[in-house]
Amino acid sequence: MYKKYLESINKTNDVIRKLDGSDEISRISKSEIKWALSKMGKKQRWLVKKGEIYQFDFGKNFVPEMSYEHRGVVIGVRKRLLYVLPIFSYKPNLHADAYHPISNNQSTSDFYLLKSDEFQFINHDSVIKLNDLRSISINRILYSHDARFDIHGDAFKSIEHMAIQKHFASFYREYEDLLKERDQLKEEIRKLQNDIKLQGPVKG
Questions:
Q1: Residues 78-104: what's their mean pLDDT?
Q2: What is the arithmetic mean of pLDDT over 100-104?
C-alpha cells in the first residue's frame, strides 16, 4: 500500500537535493504544509467577492502552469470554488509586449500590465496572466490583500473579456458576431421607425 507512496517521496527528495540552495525548496515546503493542514480538516472561512485580490498557494504544478505562492484576482465565485487569474511582478525583458489600454492597446499578449501609478493596491508594476485561468479551492487562500478592482470599471471588464477570448476563442468570436448582428438589427429598426414617422398616420 505504501510502496508507491515511498517511491514518490524518494523521487521528490532526489529532485529537492538537486535544488540545494534554491528558494524553491522553501516554496515547496510551504505548499506541502498548506495541503496537509487542509487534509486535517482545517478549512478556512472566507467571504470572497468577484474582483478581490488574494495571496494564493497554487501548489506544485507542471511548467508552464503557475505554481506556489502568488497573488491572484478573483473573476468568479462558485460556492467554495474560485476562478482566478494569477498576478506577478512585471519584468520588462519578459513582458515587453504586455497589453496596456493606453501604452500598448494593440497587443495580443497573454499578459495585462498593471501600472503601480494607476492601481493603489500594487506597490510595483505587475502583470495578470490572462491565459492561465484557474479553478481552485477557497482553501488555497493564504491571506487577503484588502484590495478589489471596480468590477464595473473599464479595466476589470477588459480583463474579463480578454481572459474569455484567450480561453474560449471560438465562443468569443460567435459572441462578438451576435453583438454586431444585434446592433445592425437595432439600426434597421430605428430607420424603419423614422420612415414610419415621416410617412405620417395611415389613412383608412
A1: 93
A2: 93
Instruction: Name the E strands within the chain.
Output: 52-57, 69-78, 81-89, 111-114, 126-129, 134-137, 141-148
Rounded Cα distance between 48 and 109, Å, is 28
Strand partners, 82: 77, 136
Tell me 69's DSSP state.
Answer: E
Sign of the alpha-carbon torsion through 65, 145, 114, 172: positive
Residue keyed to cell 484588502: 146
Half-sphere exposure of 85 (CA within 13 A, CB side): 25
pLDDT band at 1 (very low <50, low <70, confident <90, very high): low
pTM of the model as a whole: 0.80
- Backbone Cα Rg of the chain: 24
Residue 142 near residue 161 (C-beta atoms within 8 A): no
Q: Beta-carbon neighbour count of residue 156 at 10 Å? A: 17
Grid coordinates of 79 = 460556492
In 3D space, the residue among 83, 97, 105, 93 whose CA is nearest the CA of residue 160 turns out to be: 83
**H/E element, 173:** helix 169-199
Q: What's the chain's average pLDDT?
A: 88
Residue 100 and residue 107 in contact, taking contact as beta carbons nearer than 8 Å: yes
Flag whether pLDDT at 30 surpasses 90. Answer: no
CB atoms within 10 A of CB 4: 8
pLDDT bracket for residue 204 (50, 70, 90): low
